[in-house]
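Work Package 4 report. The design task specified in the project plan requires that, given a folded chain encoded as structure tokens, an amino acid be chosen for each position. We show below one input record used in the internal validation round.
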């Protein structure tokens, strides 16, 4: 396997990781910022208050974006499986 092939596979894998993890991470970030702003406005200093909305937002995003994430990972797997003979040489 040449260096170019390794670089291509790594680039594909990094893109898949970014695309698969972006929706839950971004939604968790947005909910965390909103909860922090609400805590600042209301002067509530409870540290554990932000965890439940973030967890619910991440679970909701996994339910909504789950098919997209699975199809993205499946496409990478199929591309690697199809080119498996090239990688062995």
């Amino acid at each position: 396997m040449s260096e170019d092939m390794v670089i291509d596979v790594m680039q594909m894998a990094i893109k898949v990781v970014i695309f698969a993890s972006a929706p839950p991470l971004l939604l968790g970030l947005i909910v965390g910022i909103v909860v922090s702003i609400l805590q600042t406005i209301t002067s509530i200093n409870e540290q554990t208050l932000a965890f439940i909305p973030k967890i619910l937002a991440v679970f909701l995003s996994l339910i909504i974006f789950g098919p997209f994430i699975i199809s993205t990972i499946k496409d990478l797997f199929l591309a690697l499986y199809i080119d498996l003979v090239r990688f062995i040489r």
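The longest helix spans residues 3-42. Validation will be extended to a larger panel in the next phase.
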